[in-house]
Design goal:
Length: 237
Amino acid sequence: MVIHKVKTYRNMSKKAANIITAQVITNPASVLGLATGSTPVGTYELLAEYCENGDVDFTNVKTVNLDEYYGLDANDEQSYRYFMNKHLFEKINIDIRNTHVPNGRADNIDEECRRYEQLISSLGGIDLQLLGIGHNGHIGFNEPGDSFPKETHCVDLGESTIKANSRFFNSIDEVPKKAITMGIGTIMKAKRIILLASGEDKKEILKKALFGPITPSVPASILQLHNNLTVITTIDL
Ligand code: PGA
């Protein structure tokens, strides 16, 4: 594990964008695993800027997102597909057909989970996975539980996640209760992982995740076992 302690959110975003850019320059057909939430927004802004300046070319890049709410259409402003289009895909020269997010409106959720897992395998796996961390230690929507889920699966969102995410909705009742997420196994198979965390409110959980016992009650703690994990954080650990 390599930990980069940085001063500001902007510094964190720059380091992450630089690593992703280096990955794409080194392998122009990279498979990038992407995340939603407030944390990676600055990284995506910078990637759009680098692309605009001609410093990085996403023509042959493929992306797979970690998760999606179940029940929301791609055009719904709260869906993660909408978020990714708005914050990144519309601003870079990627072929939208090469961008993948689980289908939140699939008729058969289990089939959709299987399809998504197979899709990732068929792309040859993830070269670089970008991650944030939830206040309860979740990665993707892998909520605290009794075991580490292996593959893409359907989850019931935890109370704290619903509460945290309600800030993007008109009311807490509008937050979907279910989601589709890559499994912990899917994430751990990524060749490289970049974990971003900023804000003092994440300090306690980040410490637990990186230095505490490896336990499914803190899903991110499994990352301690990954052999190519880079943590970029504004937090003093
Ligand atoms: P945030 O979410 O970036 O909005 O804090 C992180 C997460 O829940 O994974």
